[in-house]
Amino acid sequence: MTDDPLPEPDWYDRIRSAVTHASAFRGYSHGEIGVRVTNDAEIRQINARHLDHDYETDVISFAYADEPPTLEGELVVSLETAQRVADRVGWSVENELLLYVVHGTLHIAGMDDLEDDVRQAMRDAECQVMQSLGIKDIVHYGPDRVEVNIKPDHSSSETRS
Q: Are 27 and 41 within 8 A, CB to CB?
């Protein structure tokens, strides 16, 4: 995870649940996804090293195996970015971090959002998984609301900018 503990101990269980729900949504029932919660400086280094992108971001996913029913990979998520974006959009840091975990897990499970024709399917999947986690206000604070109402921050590449 991270060298610093998450703000609340139950966040670890919530992260595990987010991975499980997102994996199941895509039809995976076995496997392992490691999640590292870090800061903007470290995620920027990882982004530069592995993707040749010299900026911080919200989540980076690495897929290792995606043959149903087994899914394996790693996620790196920035708690700093989650704190900044949650404050900007007006919902909890925990929900923002869970959205990154769901988003990254869906990427590992084969979904993409780079092209317009598949982006809506990713957004719909994120909303459904977040709602399955009991986060009902995803409709008001989730990815679509941010894309419409928040101007892009060109210093980073957040999922929703």
A: no
